[in-house]
Amino acid sequence: MSEPAYHPGLEGVIAGETAISTIAGGSGLRYRGYAIEDLAREASFEEVAYLILHGELPAAAALKDFCSRLAAAAPLQGEVLDFMRSVPRDTPIMDFLRTAASALAHFDAEAVDTNSEAQLRKAERLLAQFPTVLAAQRRIQQGKEPINPDPQKSFAANLLWMLRGEEPSPQLERAMDVSLTLYAEHEFNASTFAARVITSTLSDLHSSIAGAIGALKGPLHGGANERVMEVLQEVGTAENAEPWIRQALAEKRRIMGFGHRVYKEGDPRARFLKPLCQELAVETGHEEMENMAEVIERIVVEEKGLPPNLDWPSARLYHYMGLDVTIYTPLFVVSRVTGWAAHVIEQMENNRLIRPRSRYIGPEPRPWTPIAAR
Ligand code: SDX
Questions:
Q1: What is the CATH number of the domain that holds 254?
Q2: Region 61-65: what's the mean pLDDT?
Q3: Is the same domain home to 213 and 231?
Q4: Is the separation of the CB atoms in 226 and 323 below 8 Å?
Q5: Is position 108 annotated as part of the catalytic site?
Q6: What is the atom index within ligand 1 of the atom nearest the CA of 258?
């Protein structure tokens, strides 16, 4: 029998089937059949999260009930907050969220239930809890008291409220809402695939989400949006942008926020977010950074043929919103938990253990060597 083909990084390999999203033809992105541009422009993140988890856009009554369930699940039990206060304050928030995914399981009565109804209830609870956990931990790290979630606010407004303690402007609420929609789901990306591998052993949802967070943290994946801001802060001024990027390319550095395993003609999410970024830059007085980014983007595309991915504009958007760079990838978690959970449920409903083969490149067969002879 001929040896199976080997695809480094599983590039181009179809590793499973999904009805949740598709990067159609490597250029367009659809969630459950709806174009990402339509969803980002017309729908709230709550509608999009419902669509990803339940498979259909909600009618008004269903959306109202969904939002009520999220609001009811958002406050954290006292024991969880006590645990959060015990964690060293300099713990990176992505590391903390990985721990929180496990800790929240200990307070979830359905943690071990893997039937679809229980999985969906747990998914909604995690979607509701992660914003509260993120905001509370950030404020504890700042020596401030956590702010309770406000059930009257939208998901995006509540997240900003709990983070900053200020009523967000309609512009900031809209910007956050769109970013959450764009980050929510993306087919078999590394963190989603990690969640599916864990689920395929019939393990539980919280274990799969903890593993996904670990995968998302890496700078080749979700961690890139924080690295993008570090790059922009290193460049400093628009006039320094061209010399900086030409030097970085000459040194063959990876430019965070550019390139993608699937999108070779550009990331539609980055294209959608760019004008929103430009508007917010003007509203918040960040034109210099926007001009700097434009110079870098033009040169990377010209010299490397690498268009920006979503992390390139999203980092600036969060910066213009006054958010600290240490919560950029955690914001990705707050949104992507919807996609991860939907994939966990889908994997469990039609499961086959994910167990690929490997190509052996180790030593040839050899005889035992007693220690005296080594
Ligand atoms: C996300 O998969 C998803 O869907 C992920 C995501 C999602 O929503 O879940 O879209 C979110 O993770 C977006 C990507 C965020 N990561 C970054 O921005 C990090 C920088 N980008 C790269 O590291 C890279 O583009 C990847 C990891 C995203 C994709 O890399 P591939 O497909 O493995 O491509 P590669 O590493 O094999 O590179 C091919 C060539 C190489 O040149 P050669 O060595 O062949 O000469 O392109 C070069 C690379 O050096 N290259 C880059 C580059 N990306 C690729 N060179 C400079 N800067 C870059 N960013």
A1: 1.10.230.10
A2: 98
A3: no
A4: no
A5: no
A6: 60
What is the enclosing helix (H) or strand (E) of 258?
A: none
| pLDDT digit string, tens, across residues 114-149 | 999 999 999 999 999 999 999 999 999 999 999 999
Instruction: Tally helices (H) and strands (E) across the chain.
Output: 16, 3
> Do 210 and 230 fall into the same domain?
no
Out of 186, 206, 221, 260, which one is annotated catalytic? 260
Tally of domains within the chain:
2
82 and 177 belong to one structural domain: yes
Most informative mutation of 188, 260, 336 for ligand 1 (most atoms within 8 A of CB): 260
Same domain, 237 and 204: no
Ligand 1 lined by 211 (C-beta under 6 Å): no
Task: Note the residue count of the chain.
Answer: 374
Q: Are residues 279 and 231 in the same domain?
A: yes
Buried b (16+ CB within 10 A) or exposed e, 321-336: bebebebbbbbbbbbb
- Using a 10 angstrom Cβ sphere, with 0-12 exposed, 13-18 middle and 19 or more buried, the burial of residue 54 is middle
Q: Which residue's CA is the nearest one to ligand 1's atom 25? A: 259
Domain encompassing residue 251: 224-320
Tell me, rounded to whole angstroms, the distance of Cα 16 from its chain centroid.
21
CB neighbour list of residue 263: distance below 8 Å, 6 or more residues apart: 23, 26, 27, 307, 309
What local confidence, expressed as pLDDT, does residue 314 receive? 98
> 10 Å Cβ neighbour count for 362?
4
Which domain CATH number covers 168? 1.10.580.10
Examine the domain organization and report whether 33 and 163 are in the same domain: yes
311 labelled catalytic: yes
Among the options 108, 177, 267, 311, which is catalytic? Answer: 311
